[in-house]
Amino acid sequence: MSKPLVPALYVFGDSLFDSGNNNLLPTIAKANYPPYGQNFVEHFTGRFTNGRTLPDFIAEFLELPYPPPYLSIHNESITLSGLNYASSACGILPETGNRFGKCLSLGEQIDLFEWTIKSKLPSYFKSSKELSKYLAKSIFILTIGSNDYIQNYLEPTLSSTSQVYDPQTFAQLLIDALSKHFERLHKLGARKIIMLEIAPLGCIPHYTRKYELIGQCHEETNQIVSYFNNKLHAMLKNLTSTLQGSIFILARIHSLGHDSITNPSKYGYTDTSNPCCTTWGNGTSACIPWLVPCPNPNQHFFWDGYHNTEKGNSVAASFCFNDPEFCSPFSIRELIQI
Predict the structure, then answer these.
(1) In whole angstroms, how large is the CA radius of gyration of the chain?
(2) Is the pLDDT of residue 76 over 70?
(3) Which site from 57, 79, 286, 304 is most exposed, i.e. has the minimal number of CB atoms within 10 Å?
């Protein structure tokens, strides 16, 4: 294997990025059974898709191994090529996702990262300066916030947030909390940070089925989420200018998702409204264990009621690696050189 393009890839987030942390937590939000992973080399690992996640593809581009789930390795020797702290069902707010059991909120994921760099990594480096250099050259990638809507704001039976906050105020609450988490990552040594927008949640089967929409999105839901994305753009710019040496990159996943769903043939999809696997709740939820999925997953945009197939992850990773309009202001290819 040739030399990796960066020292490490560190991953934080929710089920879009989880590669097995939730397998080891007392929660029902797990994907450790078929048909999940049917097109993945190790089969059902806890990834919420049929194959590779977006960070898996990014790792391939960077010529790094897939960052292993942190909870699976913490007693063995640590890997220096990066770790994955992402946890399905969780979000920016600590209470999000706890109805399914235990998951790692973004704050807890950063706690584990802090533990990693304070108690695990120092023994591999000659000095704290060397460790700082390693972290500054590494890439950090996050996707978080979807569940603060799906499992919180948009679920009035579970949470009162939508009675307490209008959509703009709730988005600002999330952004303020997220900003503090980013400041903490920077303080711990992260310098190159990529953050994904929230996808167009109004287009996922969980909502299109709920609102009985055929072949179209629930635009009111998309509008609610867009307040978060709009504020995210400004926040990342602001952090880049105020946190010394940092570069915050925005991955414009929202418009790509919307474009894929509304112009399927452009990306080689034949179905952008139905999940490929048979799910609980008539297409609105997770795959039912052991049922055979559709024969051609990569022609489907959706794998289950919430998550896309590997194909979408491959497309997004390729854009982020190569296109500074998609991952902006710098593509990953450019970010490596900085």
Answers:
(1) 19
(2) no
(3) 79
